[in-house]
Amino acid sequence: MNTPHSSPAQQGAQPHSGARITAITSGKGGVGKTFVTANLAAALAQKGQRVLVLDADLGMANLDVVLSLYPRITLHDVFRGSHTLDEALMDAPGGFSVLLAGSGLIDYSRLTPLVRERLLEVLDAMRPRFDHILLDTGAGISDVVLYTVSLADRVLVVTTPEPTALTDAYATMKILASTQQRRRIEVLVNQINRPGEGAVLCEQLQQVVDRYVSSGSSLALRLRCLGEVPLDNSVRDAVARRQLLLDLYPGSPAARALRDVAQRMSLLDSPALV
Question: Exposed site from 64, 186, 200, 244, fewest CB < 10 Å?
């Protein structure tokens, strides 16, 4: 029997055709996870990819705020059966599609049988229609977050150099390794202060993982640093204006870094690297 949080690999699922599903998650809030997700989606769309972002923070969604969208129909309406997926699907700035959730709805912040069933149905329906599906999860390790991550082909953990963010990122990786048998996790370090800081922090995280997670295990957890995004005043301005950084300041250091990350994500789809 499949465990609630088992990954597709652990479940023995067959490979899917269609979109590669990436769960973008974090150990704590405030690290820029939703901002990163939206701008990575735009960067992938600029490369000619068909991209869907699913707002999987079902209880406290804010992707609509980041994108300055005002949905009439949300995933909650789809879950209730009052509207169809196509009615909820929206075009976002940046050339990608979104399925938005709502905020403050406690029924969707818990892992109920309805939430489990509807999330699977949504992904099964959307996967053939896109090249990439990005799941913007909630922060932390709630049941809903862990289940959502378990549905993804790969996981990208967003952190910052802040010690509490790194500690929580490590805790998330440890849980994903133990409950979902994840053996590869991508890492993006946001808000770095100097070039190369992200790579150094990824290496430090790998050393901790080697010592406390992989030690004594025949299957080691490997972290792959997907990139680093510098502290950039343009980011603050774009967030305040509720616009995509890649649209408002396409030549900014942070925008260039996010396009580099999107390029690496595309390269990971090569059969030799997946």
Answer: 200
The stretch 14-38 carries a mean pLDDT of 88
Q: 179-188 pLDDT, tens per residue? A: 999 999 999 9
DSSP 3-state assignment of 157? strand
User: Which domains are present in the chain?
Assistant: 18-268 (3.40.50.300)
Cβ within 8 Å of residue 58, ≥6 positions away: 75, 76, 101, 105, 108, 109, 115, 138, 144
C-beta atoms surrounding 131 within 10 Å = 17
Q: Label the pairing between strands 132-139 and 51-55.
A: parallel
Q: How far, in Å, CA of 225 to CA of 229, rounded?
A: 12
Say what the pLDDT of residue 105 is.
57
Distance CA 76, CA 115 (A): 10
Secondary structure of residue 12 in the 3-state scheme: coil
First to last CA, the chain: 26
Query: Would strands 90-92 and 96-99 be described as parallel, antiparallel, or unpaired?
Result: antiparallel
Which pLDDT does position 14 carry in this prediction?
Answer: 39
Question: What is the rounded CA–CA span in Å between residue 159 and residue 30?
Answer: 9
